Structures are given as structure tokens and as C-alpha cells.
UniProtKB/TrEMBL annotation:
Gene3D superfamilies: CRISPR-associated endonuclease Cas1, C-terminal domain, CRISPR-associated endonuclease Cas1, N-terminal domain. Its EC number is 3.1.-.-. The gene is cas1. Keywords: Antiviral defense, DNA-binding, Endonuclease, Hydrolase, Magnesium, Manganese, Metal-binding, Nuclease, Plasmid. GO terms for biological process: defense response to virus; maintenance of CRISPR repeat elements. This is CRISPR-associated endonuclease Cas1. The keyword DNA-binding applies. Its cofactor is Mg(2+); Mn(2+). CRISPR (clustered regularly interspaced short palindromic repeat), is an adaptive immune system that provides protection against mobile genetic elements (viruses, transposable elements and conjugative plasmids). CRISPR clusters contain spacers, sequences complementary to antecedent mobile elements, and target invading nucleic acids. CRISPR clusters are transcribed and processed into CRISPR RNA (crRNA). Acts as a dsDNA endonuclease. Involved in the integration of spacer DNA into the CRISPR cassette. Belongs to the CRISPR-associated endonuclease Cas1 family. Homodimer, forms a heterotetramer with a Cas2 homodimer. HAMAP family: Cas1.
């Protein structure tokens, strides 16, 4: 199965017989049977996608995703028949008002904190001999994050609205510690900045998060969950709060590990004005996709990180619907 990444101006995506065809200025640059295509990602405003290609994609369960030049997802096309059962969505909505919402919110936060701590351990272990001061600096941040994780375990309430402030507080404090550690390891990193970032490191991270976001959105939708009904992130029109909750388990072990690792190996970054240039976007996307294809041990067996994203979404559905215990994913180091 392959992922079709559409970049550049003058590109068209169409259907010919049972094949997906990508052309640039009338010349075929990619052609593949639909049954061999996993997803289509359009990362340019200068492309056209035919209705026949869209129809064939949704018929075959192939998501068509759209990213801005900064990596922000702005649309995703999926089949309306992939949404699972009404029972799951009813249970999801009801869980917001009882202890299930608290348990999920706490689990998402614990996954984020423990994965962040493990990421810093991963970066620090290569500096223990070469730069002891950096190693000690990073491990003080690790200790701080792990202490906050222990505090998170003790957060209790009858419904998630009662504990949201406490969860966001520990997440925010842990994030400050985490990015302090990253800044010591990546000297050119100015500190974390989300929307509107113009520096190279944050631009790469934001672009990678955009790719991951679409993976989580696809997983949540396929699990039969409502992506807009989350727990820790508040409900707002057009805000897929459940996606933003679940993605926290995967930012550090997927995107941060891929992007910061690439920078550590001399990854060359180019900018086109305030955005990453086309070559850099392609390379960054390739790094994130490679990371998603890495196999790690999860629930006693080797699985790709991409499959684990889907497994976690299904676990959320099983928890709210059937009461099956939910355990957050924690990246290893």
C-alpha cells in the first residue's frame, strides 16, 4: 500500500479505469491501482482533484486529505459509511457527563506526559558521556515531568468538566519542562510556537503535526467516534476536540522523534518566504511517514505506530461503549 503525496502547481489527480493517475501539465508522474493506494494527501493550492477520483477513493475507503503550506489540515474527505455504530456515538456523548470522561481525560494526559519524558530520556542517553551538563539539565526536566505524571494519577472528579483545569495545568507545566529540554538539545530551537511560527524548527514540527492530525482524524472516524466530541479540549464549532485529545499521545513519539532526529543528523531546511519550501515539505513528510511505519511493541506484540493510532481510537470506542479498560500509548526510549 502506498501514500500519494501531491505537491506543486499545475498538478491534477484523476481516475483512469481502475487506477489513480497524477499528472503535471498533462504528463503522468504517478499511476497506481486504487487497491494499492492507502491515502491521498494534497499539499498544494495549485492542484485539481476530479470528482471521479474522489468517488473511487471513498468507495475504496481511501481518505483524501488537504494540508496548507504550513501543514495545517483544512479538509478531509472520507466515506460517510465508515462511521461505525450509533451505539458508540451515543455512549461517547454520555461519557462526557460521568466518570468515563474523567478517566479518558486523565489517560490522554498521562500518555502525553510519559511519552514526553521518554523522548527526553532518548535524546539524553546519547549525551551522557559527550555532554554531561546537557544530560543533567535534561534529566532534571524528566524528573519534573514524571513528578507531574504522578500528580495526574491522583486527579479525580465525577465528570471531566470538574478536572479539566487541573489536567490542563499539569499538561502546560509539563510542556514547559519538555520544550526547555528540547531547546538544550537543539540549539537553534527558539522555544515552542504553534500557529504563525516562522522559524525553521517550529515550522517543521507544525507541518509534521498536521500530517499526524489527519492520521488521528481518520482513526477516530473509522472507530465510529465523533471527532468533535472530546474531553480535555473544549467544544467549539469546527474544532475536532477528540482528535486534539488523542493526538497528544503521539506528538512526541511520532513527530518530535522524526523531526528532531532528522535535524540532529544534518537535515537541510529551506524556506520559501514564511513557509517551508516544497523540497523541505516533502522530506519532512517522508520522515514522519517513515516514523509511522516503525514497529514497536504494543500490548505484547510488534505493531507499526500507524496501526497503534488506529488501535487506540478503537480502544476509546470500546471503553465508552463496553467498559473495556483504556490504557494510553506511551512511546519507548
Amino acid at each position: 500500500m502506498s501514500e500519494v503525496f501531491v505537491e506543486g502547481f499545475g498538478v491534477s489527480v484523476g481516475k483512469k479505469s481502475e487506477r489513480l493517475v497524477v499528472k503535471r501539465k498533462g504528463e503522468v508522474i504517478f499511476e497506481r491501482p486504487f487497491f494499492e493506494v492507502e491515502r491521498v494527501i494534497v499539499c498544494t493550492e495549485g492542484a485539481t482533484v476530479s470528482s471521479s477520483a474522489v468517488h473511487e477513493c471513498v468507495k475504496n475507503g481511501i481518505p483524501v486529505e488537504f494540508l496548507s503550506y504550513s501543514g495545517k489540515p483544512y479538509a478531509s474527505l472520507v466515506s460517510p459509511n465508515l462511521g461505525g455504530t450509533v451505539k458508540t456515538r451515543r455512549a461517547q456523548l454520555l461519557s462526557y457527563e460521568d466518570a468515563r470522561g474523567v478517566m479518558l481525560g486523565r489517560a490522554f494526559a498521562l500518555g502525553k506526559l510519559r511519552s514526553s519524558a521518554n523522548n527526553l530520556k532518548y535524546y539524553a542517553k546519547y549525551r551522557k558521556s559527550a555532554d554531561r551538563a546537557a544530560y543533567d539539565f535534561v534529566y532534571r526536566r524528566v524528573d519534573g515531568i514524571e513528578a507531574l505524571a504522578r500528580q495526574t494519577e491522583d486527579i479525580e472528579g465525577e465528570k471531566v468538566g470538574e478536572v479539566r483545569g487541573a489536567l490542563l495545568n499539569v499538561e502546560g507545566r509539563a510542556a514547559n519542562l519538555y520544550w526547555e529540554g528540547v531547546r538544550r538539545i537543539v540549539p537553534e530551537f527558539p522555544g515552542r510556537e504553534g500557529r504563525g511560527a516562522s522559524d525553521l524548527v517550529n515550522s517543521l514540527l507544525n507541518y509534521g503535526y498536521g500530517i499526524l492530525y489527519n492520521r488521528v482524524l481518520s482513526a477516530v472516524t473509522r472507530a465510529g467516534l465523533d471527532p468533535f466530541a472530546g474531553y480535555v479540549h473544549t467544544d467549539r464549532p469546527g474544532k475536532p476536540s477528540l482528535v486534539l485529545d488523542l493526538i497528544e499521545e503521539f506528538r512526541a513519539p511520532v513527530v518530535d522523534r522524526a523531526i528532531l532526529g532528522a535535524l540532529g543528523m544534518g537535515f537541510k531546511v529551506g524556506m520559501d518566504g514564511e513557509y517551508l519550501d516544497e523540497k523541505t515539505r516533502k522530506l519532512a513528510a517522508a520522515r514522519v511517514r517513515e516514523r509511522l511505519a516503525v514497529r514497536v511493541t504494543h500490548r505484547g506484540k510488534k505493531q507499526t505506530l500507524e496501526n497503534i493510532v488506529h488501535a487506540q481510537a478503537r480502544s476509546v470506542a470500546s471503553f465508552v461503549r463496553d467498559g473495556t479498560p483504556y490504557k494510553p500509548f506511551v512511546g519507548s526510549w
